[in-house]
Amino acid sequence: MQILPVRLSPLSDLRAALEAVLQEHAVGAGFVMQAIGSLSVVQLRMAGMPQPLELREDLEILTLAGSLSPDGAHLHISVADAQGRVMGGHLCPGSIVRTTAEVLVALLPDHHFSREDDAETGFKELAVRTVRR
């Protein structure tokens, strides 16, 4: 495992930037361990809902965690507004960094993650494979 601290600048799409980390480092698997920072827009998909909820305001990132694979990320985030109200859910594309996002990523060079159809759940779920070197 290789630990990679990442700092994202204002106007970065948080999810897209994290999905790009694997390609930039030629690794097929990773995890976001934690993050702090702020967003001006967050796209949250709540459990069981088909479409994300968009919040456009100054938001603090409280937590961010999930898996990174070459064919997509599965990330959960919690954010707080100026009154301290907390919301969370699946992080969707279009979530925009306001001032900074400081993210700790674990790269897993001995593994390859993919998202594959799962007959039991009806969703694309994580498939883990060991890479032989």
Automatic annotation (TrEMBL):
Could you tell me the superkingdom of the organism this chain comes from? Bacteria
From the Swiss-Prot or TrEMBL record, give the protein name.
DNA-binding protein
Q: Which UniProt keywords apply?
A: DNA-binding
Q: Which CDD domains match?
A: DUF296
Task: Give one Pfam hit by family name.
Answer: PCC
The answer on whether this UniProt entry bears the keyword Phosphoprotein reads no
Q: Which PROSITE patterns match?
A: PPC (PS51742)
Q: Which InterPro entries match?
A: PPC_dom (IPR005175)
Q: Which organism is it from?
A: Massilia cavernae
Q: Name one GO molecular function term.
A: DNA binding
Q: Where is the PPC domain?
A: 1-129
Supply the SUPFAM superfamilies for this chain. Answer: AF0104/ALDC/Ptd012-like
